[in-house]
Every structure is written in structure tokens, then in C-alpha cells.
Amino acid sequence: MHALDFDYMAGLVPILLGYLPLTLGMAAAGMICALLLSCLLAVIRVSRVPGLNGAALLFISFFRGTPLLVQLFLFYYGLPQIFSFLVSINGITATIMGLTLHFSAYMAESIRAAIIGIDRSQTEAALSIGMTRAQLMRRIILPQATRVATPTLMNYFIDMIKSTSLAFTLGVTELMGATQKEAAGSFLYFEAFLVVAVIYWVIVEALSWLQKWLEQRLNRAYQR
Amino acid sequence: MIALSGLTKRFGDHTVLDHIDLELERGEIIVVIGPSGTGKSTLLRCINFLETPDAGQLTVGELSFDVTRATKRDILALRRRTAFVFQNYALFAHRTALENIAESMIVVQGMAKAEAHRRARAILERIGLADRADAFPAALSGGQQQRVGIGRAMATGAEVILFDEPTSALDPEWVEEVLTLMKQLATERQTMIVVSHEMQFARDVADRVVFMDGGRLIEQAPPHELFTRPRDERTRTFLRKVLASAPQPES
Ligand SMILES: Nc1ncnc2c1ncn2[C@@H]1O[C@H](COP(=O)(O)OP(=O)(O)OP(=O)(O)O)[C@@H](O)[C@H]1O
Ligand SMILES: [Mg+2]
Fold it and tell me: Fewest CB atoms within 10 A around its CB: which of A7, A46, A164, B10?
């Protein structure tokens, strides 16, 4: 057993923080795409769009029923063998795609539950003033549903940030990939991975704090 | 002019509306009364296509169609010519009083937001809620919410406003302010069909009172006539019951 090399750890922090924008960027991009896709899936499920409903169910079932790592490998290593135009897909794009599809399957179910929770009379009111179904969804239902679902969606975002570390298996040098390289160079595995663990931990704690604050604000919303 | 002819609605094998014929002139105010479960709400909901009727012809102004052949376009056009005031207000919870009223002007009529808000403010003025423009529904009393509900209906510019028991869900203390607003609309000759148990309101405001029972229009007449000389036995029985249980009008 050797003593922890604190100088090494302190020196590692700024190096690793340099990869934070990529990690957070992939999570943010994945989250935005997943929000759009999950809203679409939720609307299809709620309105039982014929044909599409079955497809949405299958999609959700598959992406919830298989590990994210398997999905990432499937996209990055598997798909280009079938579709040659995907040969140039890079690890970052594949990661964002994987995060989007995987998490939208979960988020769709949260948003669907939130939509169902909205009083049906608001739907009738919107229709009675002449709104189309699409206007009803966009202006009345989704703004309220995403708000109700926000705390849950924040959880998925936190999960997504941690999941970006899988990108390193696709050869992306993000936070985790960079740590791996540093550790391999110095042989100080424990120190390196401890530092990266603490960095993830701090980010997640900060977001949890933000989440609590947001939840309190949301509970007070619409009371003015 | 608004006309229903042969309007029929079934839920399963229960015929809730049985060949209803009804005509209204522009500016006419009709109050529909009748026992519970008789199809009064269903009638209003069919006129707004919140329920899809099974047979009949619907006419509102220049728009007229056979309900069995209604296209999406017919339904939208119908809804733009009719507005609905709900028993439970059904306000958009995430929109302020002002935004609730402005919504149809922005989304349905395609008006610019600033103009819609200007007009919504004018409506808030008329319904006596100018000072509550930025309040969300949850912060309003029942009476205020229902007045916003009426304001939202007014904003659509609909040819007829359908009221489904607009005061039934209200605490007694708020009933009067809503009825007052409806009377104000009546004096402005807003065409309305009102389902209500407020007999005094029917007496004061209606041009015609329609009595429904078992999915049929049993009789219709100006209020003084219907209330004093009902022709049908069922009307008599109903009136005896509600007038006996109703609080005596204050003098
Ligand atoms: N969605 C529905 N499915 C099945 N039956 C329905 C539905 N809506 C209404 N009904 C039935 O149709 C009949 C008429 O209902 P409706 O609500 O129109 O009556 P109403 O005259 O408005 O009664 P109330 O005075 O209690 O409001 C009732 O027997 C009711 O149970
Ligand atoms: Mg009713």
C-alpha cells in the first residue's frame, strides 16, 4: 500500500476539467433531442395514433429492455456494417444518438403519465374554442405536462450525464476517456479514478440541488 | 341563425337525444331546463361537437352540414362559430386570466399577440376583472374563474355561446356575480343557449324556455307562459318540484 499522491491529484483536476464541456455538451445535446423525441412518443401513445402507436410501443420496449452499452455498440460498430453511409459516424454523434434514443424511451413514459394527469376538461375547453389537436398539444397539454414531469426529467438528465462516460468505449476522449489515458500514463489508477469520481459527484450534487430548488418553484407556480 | 334538426345522439343503445329540432334567431336567449340525466349537457356538447351526434343537421349562420358527413373542416368551423362555458370553468391552468382570454384570438384567429392582449384587456374590463389580469386560475375565486370562462367564450367572437350550468359548481356567494355578467351579455343581445337550474334567471332573461325530458324537447315557450301555463304534464310535474324546492326570491 502506498500513500495517496495528492499533488498528482491536484494537478489532474484542471486537466480533467478541460474535458467537462464535451461531457456536459453531449449530455445537453442528448437531453434536448430526447425531450423532443419523448414528447413525440408520448403524444403518439396518448392519442393512440393508429399504426404509430404500435411502433412507439416497440421502440420504447426495445430501448428500455436493452443495456445502453449494447445500444451504443450496435450504433457505432454494428450499423455502419449494414448502412455504408454511416461509416463516417463519429463516437460523439453515436453517443448522443444512443443517449437520445435510450433516454427518450424512459422520458416518454413520464411525459405520458403527466399528460394523462392533466384535467380532461382543459382539452375540451381548447377544442371548444376551435383549436386543432396539434395546437391543443403544443399550447395547452405539453407545457403543463413537461412542467409536471420536470423533477423526473431532471433525474434522467443526471443519469444521462453519468452515462456519457460510456462514450469512452467508443474511443471518445471525454471526462472518463481522458482519465483512463492519464491513469495509464502515471499508473496511479486509484488517484485518477478517485478524482474523476469526485468530479462526477460534484456535478450531480449541484444538479440535485438545482432540481430541489426548481421543484419548490414549480410547486408555487400558477398560484399568483 | 342557429338550427338543429333531427339531432340524435346515442350512447350504446341508450338514445340520449331523440330527434331534437330547435331554432334560434340571432340575439335570442334560450334557457334549457329539465330533470337530471335528460340530455341537456349532451345537447350543448353536440352543438359544439364535443360529442359526435349520430344523426341530424346542424346550422350556424352560413355553415350547415349533415352531422354524419361532418369533415374535420366542418367541425373546426362549427367550433369557431360556437363557444362553450363549462360548469367547472375548465380554464387553462398555466395561463393567466388575460392569457386565457387571449388564447383563442392568438391561436385560432391568428391575431398578433399585442393586439390579442389589448382586446383581452377590454374584455377583462367588461367582466370586471381588469385588476386580476395577471392572476392564474388557481388564485381566483370560483366566481372570478367562471367570469374568465365567459370572457374566454366572448373572445372567440362566436355567434352563439353555450352555457352548461355555469353556476352549479359555485359557492352560493359567487352565483350572483356570474348571473349578473350573463344578464349583461343578454342585454347586449349575445345569442346564448343556457342550461340552468336558476329559474329566476330564466324568468328574467330568457326569450324562450325549453323543457327537455328523456332526450326530447317537450315544450318551449316564453318564460311567463311556460312557468304559468305549462301545457305538458311532465313540465308541470318538473316545475312543481323545482319551484317548491327553490328558495323564494328575495323581495
Ligand atoms: N360519455 C357518456 N357515455 C355514456 N353515457 C353518457 C355519457 N355522457 C352522458 N351519458 C348519459 O346520457 C344521459 C344524458 O346525460 P346529460 O349529461 O346530457 O344529462 P343532463 O340533462 O345534462 O343531466 P344533469 O342535469 O345531471 O347535468 C345520462 O343518462 C348520462 O348517463
Ligand atoms: Mg348536465
Answer: A7
User: Does the CB atom of residue B100 touch ligand 1 within 6 A?
Assistant: no
Report the side by side order of strands in the sheet with B208-213: B82-85, B160-164, B192-195, B29-33, B208-213, B216-221
Mutate to test the pocket of ligand 1, among B20, B31, B41 (most ligand atoms within 8 A of CB): B41
Distance between the two ends of chain A, CA-based, in angstroms?
61
- Enumerate chain A positions whose Cβ falls within 8 A of a Cβ in B: 119, 121-122, 124-132, 135, 139-140, 143-144, 147, 221-224
> Which helix (H) or strand (E) element contains residue B83?
strand B82-85
Question: What ipTM was reported for this prediction?
Answer: 0.93
Do B88 and B169 form a contact (C-beta atoms < 8 A)?
A: yes
Q: For residue A220, give the chain B residue with the closest CA.
A: B138
Kindly give the distance from the C-alpha atom of residue B170 to the centroid of ligand 1, in angstroms, as a whole number. Answer: 20
Query: Which letter does DSSP use for residue B50 in this model?
Result: S
Quick check: helix, strand or coil at residue B135? Answer: coil
Q: Looking at residue B199, what DSSP letter applies?
A: H
CA distance A42 to B60: 36
Q: Which domains does chain B have, with CATH numbers?
A: 2-244 (3.40.50.300)
> From the CB of B36, is ligand 1 less than 6 Å away?
yes
Q: Residue B248 region, left (φ>0) first, then alpha (ψ -120 to 50), else beta?
A: beta
Q: What pLDDT digit, counting tens, does each position of A160-179 carry? A: 999 999 999 999 999 999 99
Separation between Cα atoms, residue B114 and residue B178, nearest integer Å? 28
The interface residues of chain B toward chain A in range 122-161, judged by CB-CB distance below 8 A, are: 134-139, 152-153, 156
The Cα–Cα gap between A69 and B144 comes to 55
Q: Which fold has domain A6-219?
A: MetI-like fold (1.10.3720)
pLDDT grade for B161, boundaries at 50, 70 and 90: very high
Tens-place pLDDT, residues B16-42:
999 999 999 999 999 999 999 999 999
